[in-house]
Amino acid sequence: MKVLRFEYENNRFELHAMFIDDISSMKDNDIQRDMLKKSEKIVEVALGFEGYLKVESFSTYEENNSVYCSYTFGKDNKKT
Questions:
Q1: CA–CA distance from 44 to each of 26, 33, 41, 76, 79 (Å)?
Q2: Contact indicator for 33, 53 with CB cutoff of 8 Å
Q3: pLDDT digits 0-9 by tens, 12-25
């Protein structure tokens, strides 16, 4: 996966990424799960946030094999 753009503002995180594998053959649930895991890792490393993310929006773009997701941060649910 290649990150095309990510953005953080207030209580919102956005990730737009291009997949190496053809997303047209993948199930949306699998794509969403993969994007969520990647997003949580980016947020943890970049911002030190260890809570959870709630999916706000999800879009696939088969023409360039990319996916856009936006999330809001969950309330005080720290990993231990």
A1: 26, 16, 5, 14, 11
A2: no
A3: 999 999 998 899 88
Q: Give residues with Cβ within 8 angstroms of 33, minimum separation 6.
A: none
Q: Is the separation of the CB atoms in 55 and 74 below 8 Å?
A: no
Q: Is the dihedral of CA 51, 20, 70, 24 positive or negative?
A: negative
Per residue in 51-79, pLDDT (tens digit) is 789 999 999 999 999 999 999 987 654 44
Question: At a CB cut-off of 8 Å and minimum separation 6, what does 43 contact?
Answer: 8, 13, 49, 53, 73
Query: What letter represents residue 10's amino acid?
Result: N
Which domains occur in the chain, in start order?
A: 2-73 (3.30.980.10)
**Contact criterion met (CB below 8 Å) for 71 and 7:** no
Mean pLDDT to the nearest integer, 34-54: 86
